[in-house]
Amino acid sequence: MKRAGLVLIIGLAAGIAAFAGFYLAGTATSRELLRQPQPELAWLKHEFNLSEPEFTRIVELHEAYMPGCAERCRRIEEQTSRLNQLLATIPEVTPEVEAVMALRAKMRAQCEAEMLKHFLEVSRTMPAEQGQRYLEWVKKQTVLSGEAMEQRHHSHQGHDH
Predict the structure, then answer these.
(1) Coil, helix or strand at residue 50
(2) Closest to 55 (Cα-Cα) out of 35, 70, 40, 34
(3) CA distance 105 to 55
């Protein structure tokens, strides 16, 4: 009985050690990226094989872009709050509600245009092939794919509401 318990403990210890080893090996790259000065951008350097000057330029572009991005998001959120306030008092589509929705849509379009300009500028910082691959990636990962509303609508086709 003591021998079975010892074998079980050794087996558990070996399993835990194997798990820890595989986990550490499998997450080494991710953990290294998180220790970088710009962890939110470090993956770009790794994924697109960027040189130090290319990466430095992308960090500069990112830092220049973010304040305007934050301001655009703040202004869009203001309009969303305004829309919610209007709908809380009069739950109808009034001319004022339509005006707020139109302004918010215009702001979102401007935001997307600025985002696209930024993505194009970042892509031009990379070697041509990597820049093209980056643009394909951001197109799929962002609102530039144009699938948010369209995808929801498509998924409901053929279903009764």
Answers:
(1) coil
(2) 40
(3) 33
